[in-house]
Structures are given as structure tokens and as C-alpha cells.
Amino acid sequence: MELIMIKILKTVLLASVLALSVTSAKSEAVKLVTLEYPPYEYKDGSSADGIVVRILQAAFGKLGKDITIEVLPWKRALHMVKEGDADAIFTAYKNDERVKFLDYSETVLMPQVLSVWVQKGSDVGFDGSMDSIAGHKIGLVDGISYGTMVDEAIKVGTLKSVDYAPQSENNIKKLMGGRIDAIIMNKYGAMHHLKNHKGLDKVVELQPEISSIPSYIAFSKKNNLAGLRDQLDGVLQEMIASGEYQKIIDTYFAG
User: 70 and 190 share a domain?
Assistant: First the structure.
């Protein structure tokens, strides 16, 4: 009888330990790291905010997953996912070196769009070539690469009148003040500054875009999270198809 009781107690104890382990695994938050890059992701007091932060909060919420987001220097964030000290990183460009230690999402988390911006009602036109804006005064940020097409146009002198500023916000102010004819800038970065300076209804983006570079969320291979990556891919695709993805972006700028 005593032997039976011992066996029963062992069974109950084992079941309790297993249940505790499962509960702990379920409740453990997914640790995400990113960089300071408004309006996509940035530190707001003690928490993170931004367009991509809100998209990921909604997506992981649909999976029933809690997340933590830490805003760090980019080099440190990359090291953490490489070593398995963080579960995933965003918004990351894909390259041959990073795919060795990261499982990238198939779905583009956020396209990084470069565009020409002008005052509403401006006669500046853009047909996709640098020649079409060659006669105008263009605002750029000093020391920044704008990709092959723009950099080459500056190098060979196609863009004859370039006005450099130390920060992109300076160019927004100059454009709104009529001191330059156009700026070349990241789409949502421009909208972020325009929102802060009440200029969203005063400045417009010209089409076509100059370029669009995909950025992703990527999971640490060391932590074996390819399955979670696949689940998140499905949710992101659903959010894009339903319009929820774009609604989050629109709500951010409307707020």
C-alpha cells in the first residue's frame, strides 16, 4: 500500500512539474530588439512606440503572444539576436552575412521608400529620372547615401543645385518655408517631421518613388523560432490583405 502511495505521489509531482513548465513556456514573452528610428520604432518614455511597433504588437497579439521591445544601438541589437540573447530583431535589411544567424520573415514588414517631396501646388515634376528635377534646388542631408541613382546624379553634376542640411528635419522646415524646391527623403520619415510641424496638408510626395528597399523582422536561429516566424508571416499577410496594416499606419499619422 505504501509503495502504491509513493508511486501516486511521484506521478502527481511529475504532472505538476510538467504543467508548470508548459505554463511557464506559454507565459514567457518573445523578446524583440530594434533601433531608434522614428517614426518606425523609437523609445517613448519607458516603452517603445512607432508604426512598426504598433503593427507587431497587433500581430503578436493575434497569436496570443506577449512581447517585450528593447530599443538599442543597432550593433548591440544584432549581436543579441546572433547570440540568442534576444528572439528577433526589426526592421532589418537582408544580406548574406545576416541570413547565417537569422530566420527572416517572408513577408516584408516595412518597405523603406525614398521619394521626392514638394510643396503642394509646386510646378516641380518628377518622371523617375534625376534629369527631371535637375533644374531645381534640392534639399539633402549631408553625409547620407541616397542610393546609386541619386548619389551618381550628385557625383556627375546632374543635380546642379543641392542644398545640404545636418538633419532631415531642417530640410522639411526649409521646404515649407520656400527656401528649397524639393527634398529627397524616406517616405514615413518625411511624414513624421511634417506631422510634427503641421505640414501634412502642405507638402506632397511625387510619384514614382525613387526606390523601395524591403525591411523585415528576423528571428534568432539559435533560439529555433522558425515556426513562430511562419505563424507571424501568416498573420502579417492577413493584416495586409484586410487593410488593418495600413489602418495602423494611417491612425499613427492622424493622431
Answer: no
pLDDT of residue 5: 47
Under 8 Å CB-to-CB from 89, ≥6 apart: which residues? Answer: 32, 33, 34, 77, 78, 80, 81, 102, 217, 218, 220
Q: Which amino acid is at 69?
A: I
Domain span including residue 178: 112-212
DSSP-derived 3-state class of residue 50:
coil
Residues 172 and 54 in one domain: no
Cα distances (Å, whole numbers) of residue 193 to 28, 71, 162: 37, 20, 20
Closest CA to 228 of 240, 239, 220: 220
Peptide bond into 39 cis (omega under 30): yes
60 and 135 belong to one structural domain: no
Grid cell 550628385 in the structure block, residue? 154
d(CA 154, CA 149): 9
Say how far apart CA 5 and CA 32 lie, in whole Å.
Answer: 47
Low-confidence ranges of the chain (pLDDT < 50): 5-6, 8-9, 11-26
Give me the pLDDT at residue 27, please: 56
Q: How many domains does the chain have?
A: 2
DSSP letters for 67-132: EEEEE--HHHHHHHHHHTSSSEEEEE---TTGGGTEEE-SS-SEEEEEEEEEETT------SSGGG
Cα-flanking dihedrals φ and ψ of residue 214, to 5°?
-75, 140
DSSP element (H, E) containing 182: strand 182-186
Identity at 236, one-letter amino acid code: L
What is the predicted pLDDT for the residue at 2?
Answer: 52
pTM for this entry: 0.82
